[in-house]
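Supplementary Text 2. Reproducibility record for the structural model of the 407-residue chain.

All settings were left at their defaults, and a single model was retained for analysis rather than an ensemble. We include the record here because the model underlies the residue-level annotations in Supplementary Table 4.
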Amino acid sequence: MVSILKQIFLFIALLLLFACNKNEDNLAKVIVAPWGIIADENCDTMEHYSLKEILESGELIALTIPGEDSYYTFRNAEMGVQYMVGAKLAEELGVGLRVNECLDTLEMVEKLKKGEGDIILLPLSRNIEGADSLVFCGPEEGNSQWAVMEYNKELADTINKWFDPEMIAEAEKLEANILENGGIVQCHVYAPYLDKEAGIISEWDALFKEYAGEACADWRLLAAICYQESCFDPKARSWAGACGLMQLMPATAQTLGLEVADIFDPEANIQTAAQYLNHLIKLYRDVPEEVERLNFVLASYNGGPGHVRDAMALAEKHGADKFVWDDVSEYILKLSNPAYYRDEVVKHGYMRGTETHNYVSSVRQRYEEYSGQKLTGNHYGAPQAAGYAGVSTEPTRRVAKTNKFQI
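Retained model, structure tokens:
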């Protein structure tokens, strides 16, 4: 009896040992995904969304290559004919549209197959390698169309039923109209002076002076920016959704602690813009010359700091001075050329730099007119001017409670 029990225990021990060894062998094959799912390394953990799942998620993820006809930002709004038609598709589906930028068609296809996007929102050649696993749909340019994965044929069929070739022409017309009119800001055009002889620029001068300290700038610079943005109309609204005197984008305003419901309030709008200018000034603390720093701040207020940094990187790569606006502005203009916006040092793609280039000049000229001084050397404005704080990289003395923008 004892002998039998020993044999049974020995058999159980061998089973347990075998099981432990097998588990140890499998440990190397078990991985923990970033979202916490335990899976075998050979298991496909990629998520591929069907049309139903896209609708349930509330978001369509589009893959594209930045370019003049595909996708770019203009006055902080997303543009490009292909993108605009894609945005219309997302609206039709009742979902948001998020763009995932790629370097080339190979990266787009790889990301689509990995589930990092739902659709390639750029005409893609049907002869491209791997096309046999794709379904083509939407706008057609010769042998090229948008593409989705073959498992997502329902999405492709939905797009084909919805798409009308006239949509391309409509998007091109809308884009041309927006660009021709510099962004189409709906506003009442007030005079650049309320009373020039008395030195009164606008009815908002008291607010410019009050919040100039938060901007670390002469109050008349705030006035010059305001006139360029809205012509002193507190109800101004742009086609892209920028609002109020200083043309704040709602997302930027919210980041700085301003509720969208208050975005047209003149005082709140000016204060928030002053805080944003202060943020931009700190972003360019590496620019040693004050006047030069002002140029980069103005360019970023209009075109976004990402594009400005791209132009600085290009200037440095080509032997120019990345801290001198005259050198950098040349590359702001060149960011509309594929040879430049596809350069490896460029991180934010295509840019229509003409408006930003002209914006800096226009605001500077108006500021010089308002201040009565030429922007030269390492200083701008008059130290005795009310509210003047220079372009300091030091924190402002007055910090608003609503300032949530972390530098």
